């Protein structure tokens, strides 16, 4: 039986790299991202199903769940960085913070809720929630983003306790050479970070080996 994965934020960065890795192993893929043109190109490359849209939109979440009635893996990879340059908490725009929580915490939970019936029915049902070392480190300027990822980690921790039949991994991929990191620290510094393809290979290994639910650092 062919495995099926639903990956958010799949048009670039880690999401794209993981989609390529899983596709090379014969997985069926349902991919989503906000940029329709980029997503369609990725789907054409990989023979995947593309459903562009915003994961904070409840109707989009419903479309994604309907597109994967049989599902083995949900990867909540889509994230919002927030304001750049990264501001201190004393001046962090509260509307931006609310939007961060909507994208980085509420949307992953909504997708978990929508896909849990299929994941429970699978003998290999699993959730990967992509987090960050900013969830635990006191990095200046990263308070808004880090707080959202800390919330996602605790959500994952409780989900793992509540859903013993489903593997739940909250994964810190480490710094990667992505557009998001470049937006945060500059392109020159980001260029020295890890290749997303290398990190995706480690994440693929995690999914294949299926260790117990828990936090995983890939670098």
Note the topology.
Layout: E1 4-8, H1 13-24, E2 28-32, H2 36-46, E3 49-50, H3 58-67, E4 73-76, H4 94-121, E5 126-130, H5 143-162, E6 167-172, H6 179-185, H7 187-190, H8 196-209, E7 214-217
Parallel strand pairs: 1-2, 1-4, 2-3, 4-5, 5-6, 6-7
Helix pairs in contact: 1-8, 3-4, 4-5
Write a structural description.
With 219 residues, the protein is an alpha/beta fold. It contains eight helices and seven strands. The chain has one domain: 3-Layer(aba) Sandwich (Rossmann fold), CATH 3.40.50. The protein has helices at residues 13-24, 36-46, 58-67, 94-121, 143-162, 179-185, 187-190, 196-209; strands spanning 4-8, 28-32, 49-50, 73-76, 126-130, 167-172, 214-217. It has a seven-stranded parallel beta sheet with strand order 3-2-1-4-5-6-7, sandwiched between helices. It is globular. InterPro entries: NAD(P)-bd_dom_sf, Sc_DH/Rdtase_CS, SDR_fam. Keywords: Oxidoreductase.
Task: Quickly describe the structure.
By secondary structure, this protein is α/β, with parallel strands linked by helices. It has one domain (4-217): NAD(P)-binding Rossmann-like Domain (Rossmann fold).
First and last CA, distance: 31 Å
Please identify the top-level CATH class: Alpha Beta
CATH-derived topology: Rossmann fold
Structural class: alpha/beta
Counting DSSP E segments of at least 2 residues, the number of strands comes to 7
InterPro entries: NAD(P)-bd_dom_sf, Sc_DH/Rdtase_CS, SDR_fam
Organism: Nonomuraea polychroma
Pfam families: adh_short
Keywords: Oxidoreductase
